Structures are given as structure tokens and as C-alpha cells.
Amino acid sequence: MQADLICVGNELLTGLIENSNTGFLARRLWSAGISVREACVVADNEQAIRVALEKALEESDLVILTGGLGPTDDDLTREAVAGALGLPLVLNQGWLKKMEQYFRNRGIKMPDNNRKQALVIKGSTLLENQRGTAPGALMESQGKTIVMLPGPPHELQMIFKQQVLPYLAANNQTGLTAVKTLKCIGIGESMLEEKIKALGKWELPPISYVSRGFEVDLQIKGSGEGEAASVSIAKAEQLLRSVLGDYIYGSNDDTLVSLAAELLTAKKMTLALAESCSGGLLSDLITDFPGSSKFYRGGLIAYNSVVKSDLLGVSKELLEKEGVVSAATALAMAAGIKKLLKADIAAGITGVAGPESDSAGKPVGLVCIAVLGPGISENRQLNLGGGRRAIKERSAQIALDMLRKILVKL
Amino acid sequence: MQADLICVGNELLTGLIENSNTGFLARRLWSAGISVREACVVADNEQAIRVALEKALEESDLVILTGGLGPTDDDLTREAVAGALGLPLVLNQGWLKKMEQYFRNRGIKMPDNNRKQALVIKGSTLLENQRGTAPGALMESQGKTIVMLPGPPHELQMIFKQQVLPYLAANNQTGLTAVKTLKCIGIGESMLEEKIKALGKWELPPISYVSRGFEVDLQIKGSGEGEAASVSIAKAEQLLRSVLGDYIYGSNDDTLVSLAAELLTAKKMTLALAESCSGGLLSDLITDFPGSSKFYRGGLIAYNSVVKSDLLGVSKELLEKEGVVSAATALAMAAGIKKLLKADIAAGITGVAGPESDSAGKPVGLVCIAVLGPGISENRQLNLGGGRRAIKERSAQIALDMLRKILVKL
User: Fold this and answer.
1) Reported ipTM
2) Partner A contacted by B282 (CB < 8 A)
3) Exposure of B319 by Cβ count < 10 A (0-12 exposed, 13-18 middle, 19+ buried)?
4) A257 contacts in chain B (CB < 8 Å)
5) Interchain CB contact of A195 with B (< 8 Å)
6) Taking 90 as the threshold, does the pLDDT of residue B211 lie above it?
7) What is the CATH number of the domain that holds A186?
């Protein structure tokens, strides 16, 4: 099956907002065996949307439009699709009531222009939006499927996963794309490729590489249909694991956080964090995991070194002798927060995120991380580049990887 | 002037790689007074590229193609453009020599397939690539300008800034776009529009709305040329400020964090945070600001309620009587961290991020925030929707807005 994507919005054509919806939908469709023929971005203009839709319907069986479902005058996707199909818009009383309730819950009277969001194309199925006031819609027309989704990514993603994909599957519109992703950390893309090439002639399925900071996703696409594809993936995975070993930390939907969270939950252990240069990012990542309150005791962002000594009990002598950014300080921070928050395992991160070196002259990008569990500890010193945000992100990635490795041993 | 963008690449249509080139080019063109009519992504397929190019040339004066300039068999942009224009490809000896040198410098013999990258369309200008082997190209054809750029963002961006923009400017194809963005918080997009509509007939410049959680950017595009455009923006801004007042927190590059940071720095005050449901996100946002170490003492993520009582000194009676998620607890958390970290001003955030209600039955999305400064305090209770991440983000946005408002008064 083949799909066309149409993203609507002036803000995408002026670059005011990055378009992440095309990537998300393309990935999800592709792994459901639906290939995207073309993806376009058009303006908030009824005629432009209509022309794009008509062209897409000539080419593909499935057309997904995103954006332009808001309450304001420049939200025109509903009108354009209705016009192209020659169908009227009708008021959906059920959604109107939900919207009124939504505003009531927030103690606000619903503005009149939100009524527009309860207008649906006759014959279409409303896709409920649990995260906003713009519902999606889905309809069949002359053997083609048309889907409209709201533009905000967290709304679009939830509706797509919970309502659109199941619909497509139930209507036999999805196919099989046997794909497996191996998730790697601690090795660069080019070195990965070198190791894989050293395996010799590659008669196995094609592999693609996508890197994010210190992580690289290795995606293997199975050759052949059904069983044959699975077998080819299994063979490739075995070979890859033989050369990459510990660089592979998981597969498919695994993340560094999800694996650490599962291990903590399974082992009934609690976690505490003492962050300096990462500034709370690691804590933020961990608390994005639903259910993290079961194992996460909390953390301290010890941005000022006085906080490190006063609260975490890192001695002033150690800070002076070894430096605020040192392996010893990272370990003392981990020990301090472990005791303070009565946790089973703790991590300490200290480093120089920049833009300037620290007062002791330690260079930007120097980061020390310690993870401490019962009877076990691990220390790493890193020289990171890429600017302030990248240093924070990479510190957090490495700390999570160290945490996972220690948890496996416990 | 109007432009069309065509991004070529299977990897963009499977979502393996996020397409950041459209956003980059759109932003740069728009601020050079060139509006993008449509942006599309097409496959590595000669016919698909050709069809997209022919359509774009019908509509726009400038067409920019990205990607498909590599050395491999599936790189077909050169061939497709040459085919569409009916022009032959010729070998550029100069670029061939540069490529050979490039490989020699790396101690490698140039692979044969790289020769292909020295093929240029007859009559086109080669755009040198200092960061890779794929050169870009620029040509005029029947009054239209066609530009081809390599896909890797850091190559594309350098060529675009150093060679394409100057060419367009020298040929009088760029214009002036006078734009001002007013940054709003605490008011939804629909209510904003209602207030603006209540101003009566809008004879002022066009406005566009972009929302990010609780923030909305109001972008005013000046009407007319030069001075006239600035005057029209100033008029519009005055009117908008008269109805939106305090909802406008800043303009252009201001962010909630940058304004709070500037106020803290100017007033020589220090900040501390006690976060629960926001899980460290607020601290992460603040420490993204370069120079935050000057005013940020640190923070505590009190994810477990024992941490709230033990470390922040929130009394067990208060937690039991008022609840962990309550205005009183938020204030006690702020007071606790302010004292603990010896800061001048502090914020406390407690709430239910979900997916489940808390043990006391407080609903998902209930968030209480307190900000406490010398002789001043502010409390807010919110009912937030949108899922775990959105609740965290909105809590942080509101806390920053409260912090800024208190700092202004101090």
C-alpha cells in the first residue's frame, strides 16, 4: 500500500516550527508496511490544500493530512477536504459537549470560535483527541482512505497510534515490513560501519544507520517475504552481535531509560541522582518514564559547589585537592545523595558544560560520572564536544548506560 | 519572490532521517523576503524528481532541490534536472581534480563512482562544497532560478549561506521582510484571536499564531516596504498590547528563561527550585541558559514524599491534612529549598503527572506551584491536560512566568 502525506501550515513554510510530523508518520507507516510516495507542506490556503489532496488521491490509496484543524480563521483543512470531496460539514454534538466540558474543567467559558472544531465532514469518523480540542477524522471515498490529524505532535501521535493504525490494520491496509533495530551506544557511526564491513562480503539484509548523540540505531530490513525475512534478520543480528557485543544495548522500542527503569523495577531497587553539569536533564529523562515514581526517590541539582559540600557532604578538602570536576567528586556526590535520599543506587555527574572553563581551569566538555550501588561502583571521565546542550545530553546518555550495566550485574 | 523546495531521498520518506533542510531553507528564505509556496519530499526516482521540478517551475521563480547528489547509483537529482531542462551533463575538470586531491589528502584512492560528482549540467554554475565531495549547482533557465544542494545539513547550510544567498541578493531576488514576534503566555490561541477580533476591523498587517504548550507566538508581518513596514508593525503592536496587556511577556528572541535569567542577574539574586511532578525539567531549562551558574544555586527533585518532609521540612501534618499536591505543600517546598540552598527566591512545584491519580485520589493534571521571594509569594493551582510530558512542560512554563512576574516586582 502507498500513502501521500500533506502537512498544512504557514508556520512550516516560514520555518517558524520544525516539521516533525512527516518523519513520525513516515517511520510508523513504513514499519507497518505502507510506503510513503510523497510528502508535501502547503500553506494555510484552501485552494492549495485542495490541489495537493486531489493530486495525492490520484497517486495513493491513503492520504494523511496534518494541521489546519485549529479554531482560528486560518485553519482550513476541514473546509478544503470537504470541498474537494463535495461533502458538507455537519456539527458533531458529542464533540461539542466534550469541548465544553474540557473548558469547564479548566474554569473557562469556551470561546465561540472553538465551535468550528466540532464540524465534521459528513460520513467521516471522528477521531477523538484526548490531548486537545481538535479532533481528527477518517473517511473512505472512492476506494481511498483520507485521514486528517491535528498538527501538535503529541496530539497527532496519540491519535495515530491508538486510532489510525488499528483501523488500517483491521481493514487489511497494512502489510509486513520485517525490520529490526539494534540500539547501540558508545561507538560512532563510521567505526560501526568499519566493524561491519570487516565481516567481509555482506550477503545479508541491508542495514541503515541513524545516530543521535552517542547512540546509533542500526536498522536491519529483512530480505524476502514472511518467514524468509525473519530468518534473514536473525542471521544478520547474530553476525552483528558477534562483532558489536556490548555496544548493542537493546532493540526496537528499548531506550536507555526504559531498560534502566525495567531493571530497577524488577530488582525492587530505588534510585537517586546528584547532578551538576547535566542540570536536571537526567532526572527529567527518568521522570518521563511512566511509573518512575515507584523507583525514583529524587535528585539534587548541586549547581553551586557549596551545595555539593553542605548537602551532599563532599568534603571541602576533596573539592580543593581533586577539584569540583573530578572522579573523586563524582563518586562522593553519588555516595552523598545515596545516603541523603536512602536509595539503593545513585549516580553523580560533575563537569564543565561551558561556555567557559571552570574556575579551576578545567576545560569545557570534561565530565566525570560515577554510579554507586551496593558493593559496586563505576567511574568514567569523558571529554565531550558539541556545545552546552550536547554536553548535557551526552552526559545523561553515558550515565544511563553505566546505570544499566551496573543494574545488570546486581 | 516565491520559491518551491524539493527534498530528494528515500531515507526521508521512511523517516529514517529527520528532514531539517526544509526548516532551515524556509527560515533563511523567509527572512530574506522570499516566501516558500510549497515544500515536498520525493523519492530517489528520476521520474518523480522531474515531475516535481516541472510543477514547481510552473508555480515559482526559484526552485531549490536538496539531496540526490551523492556518488551512488540511487543519486539521481543531476540526471533528473538535466532531463527536465533538456540539457546535457558535462565533466567539470576543476572539481574532478579537487575531489582527487580530497581523497589523496586522506590517503585513499578516489573510488570510481565519485567521478559522477564532477558531472555538471551544461551552463550551470558549480557551487563549491568545502565539507564534502558533492558540489551544488545553480542555473538560470527561462527566467527561473534552479539551485541544487547536497543533502547533508552542514554541507547544505554552508553553501546556501556563502554562495546561494549572496547570488540571490546580487540579482535583486531578495526583499525586505519586516517582522516582529510578540510572545504570549497564559492565554490560548482561540481566546487570543477572539480578543484581537474584538478590536474590530483589522486594517493592520497580517498576524500568524504559533502555539507551544501554554505559549503563543504572535507574528506580525509588516505591510509595505522599508519605513512603511516598520510603522505598520509599531501600530499593530500598540493595538495588540492594549488588549493583551500582561499576556505578552516579551518579543522576538526573548524566552521565559532568558527573561528570568536577565532579571536574576540584574538584581543579583539567586534561585533555588524544589520540583516534584516536573521531575527536573525546570532545572534543565534554566541550566540550558549559558551563565546560569551565576544565579542558580541548585534544586531538589523531591519525587518521593518522604524527601519532601525529610529534606525540605514540609511537615507530615501538612502533607496529611492538605495533601502532597496542594497549594500549602508547594509553598512549604519553596520555603524549604530557599532555606536549604540559601537562595533569594525559590519555586516549589507539586502535582500529578499521571498516568494514574496520586494515592490521595488527586486527579492527573492537578498541579500546584508556588514562588517565594523576599516579602512576596505567589501561588497557582492548575488543571493541565495533554499527557505526562505536556503536564511537565506546562508546569515549567507557568512556573517560569510566575518567577518572572515576581522578579519584576522585586
Assistant:
1) 0.81
2) yes
3) buried
4) none
5) no
6) no
7) 3.30.70.2860
A27 touches chain B (CB under 8 A): yes
Give the pLDDT confidence of B76-103 residue by residue, as tens digits.
Answer: 999 999 999 999 999 999 999 999 988 8
Domain extent, residue A309, equals 256-409
Same domain, A20 and A118: yes
3-state secondary structure chain B: CEEEEEEECHHHHCCCCCCCHHHHHHHHHHHCCCEEEEEEEECCCHHHHHHHHHHHHHHCCEEEEECCCCCCCCCCHHHHHHHHHCCCEEECHHHHHHHHHHHHHCCCCCCHHHHHHHEEECCCEEECCCCCCCCEEEEEECCEEEEEECCCHHHHHHHHHHHHHHHHHHCCCCCCCCEEEEEEECCCHHHHHHHHHCCCCCCCCCEEEEEECCEEEEEEECCCCHHHHHHHHHHHHHHHHHHHHHHEEEECCCCHHHHHHHHHHHCCCCEEEEECCCCCHHHHHHHCCCCHHHCEEEEEEECCHHHHHHHHCCCHHHHHHHCCCCHHHHHHHHHHHHHHCCCCEEEEEEECCCCCCCCCCCCCCEEEEEEEECCEEEEEEEECCCHHHHHHHHHHHHHHHHHHHHHHHC
Under 8 Å CB pairs connecting chains A and B tally to: 258
Give yes or no: residues B108 and B78 share one domain.
yes
Alpha carbons B131 and B125: distance in angstroms, whole number: 18
Co-location of A226 and A100 in the same domain: no
Q: Among A251, A280, A301, which residue terminates a domain? A: A251
Q: What is the pLDDT of residue A287?
A: 97
Q: Which residues lie across from A383 on neighbouring strands?
A: A366
Give pLDDT tens digits for B352-386.
Answer: 998 888 888 899 999 999 999 999 999 999 998 87
Number of domains comprising chain B: 3
Question: Which of residues 62 through 91 in chain B touch A, CB cutoff 8 A?
Answer: none
Q: Does residue B148 share a domain with residue B11?
A: yes
Enter the C-alpha cell of residue B110: 578516489
Residues A235-281 pLDDT 10s: 899 999 999 999 999 998 899 999 999 999 999 999 999 999 999 99
Identify which of A304, A257, A250, A282 has the alpha carbon closest to the alpha carbon of residue A348: A282
B189 contacts chain A (CB < 8 A): yes
Rounded CA gap, A46 and A54, in Å? 12
Q: Are residues B207 and B264 in the same domain?
A: no
Q: Which of A51, A113, A211, A293 is the mutation pick for testing B, counting most B CBs within 10 A?
A: A293
Domain end among B236, B251, B266: B251
**Whole-angstrom distance, CA of residue B278 vs CA of residue A174:** 38
Question: Which of B72 and A271 is assigned the larger pLDDT?
Answer: A271
Kindly tell me if the per-residue pLDDT of B202 is higher than 70. no
Q: Are residues B234 and B280 in the same domain?
A: no
Residue A384's SS3 state is coil
Give the pLDDT confidence score for residue A190 in this predicted structure: 66
3-state secondary structure of A340: helix
